Amino acid sequence: MKKAIYLVTMLFTTNYFYAQSGQAEYIIKMNALSYPNAGKYEERIEKMKEYANNQKFELIFNKSQSSFKYIESLNSDPNFSETENKIARAAFTASSDFYYDNLRNIEISQGRDKVLIEKKNAKVAWIISTDSKMIGDYLCYKATYQEPYVSRRSGQKNYTNVVAWFAPMLPYGYGPVQFYGLPGLILELQYKNTTYFATNIKVSNASRTIYSPKGKTVSKEEYDKKLREQMGM
User: Of 58, 70, 94, 159, which cross-links 146 as Cys (Cβ 3.0–4.6 Å)?
Assistant: First the structure.
């Protein structure tokens, strides 16, 4: 399958081979069946989903770096609450901004607490299938990944299924939130109860500087340790 993807890339990326940088916006769609047994919290969750569905994110990239950030927007709705919007980000979309540097092999994330968390880029064990579909003008292939996590309740190791559709025609290994490493830009990502859809995709032959977040960083291990201590774990 990897050989097939390589051939597709060679056939369709002629106009993109010399492109130095690019950008894409991502809109959000929540799973309509998410949290069906919310009980007394159903109304609050539906409101959070409404906020999430109106959020947008921007991915900018060059050949070796990328930055994924929430797009701040002016909202004329008198009932709009930035606090509720931030909660919706934390619950359903991306509570952190992400910066990747392939040359230094690092990822830096910055959440609501403004702490800069640095970790080494890990190889994502994507499984690329022969499933394909068109997303806009781009032929995309399906890739899946089982993201491991430890349950806070049971302490047991579990997995979250991640589904990505990437475009070999756009030979950049970036995507929304913390996902990367495919032989093409991720144009659609299904993660937990949220789907990210790429729009307004642009590539340019001009170089583009992507700035690393400024400030002191802490390691992911150190940050997680402090978080566990604060939670009494």
Answer: 159
DSSP 111-127: -TT--EEEEEPPPP--E
Find all residues with CB under 8 Å of 221, minimum gap 6, and list them: 119
Distance of CA 108 to the CA centre of its chain: 13
pTM confidence score: 0.84
Q: Burial, 200: exposed, middle or buried (Cβ in 10 Å; 0-12, 13-18, 19+)?
A: exposed
Phi-psi region of 146 (alpha: psi -120 to 50; beta: other; left: phi over 0): beta
CA distance 221 to 14: 42
Q: Does residue 46 contact residue 32 with C-beta atoms inside 8 Å?
A: no
Distance CA 92, CA 80 (A): 17
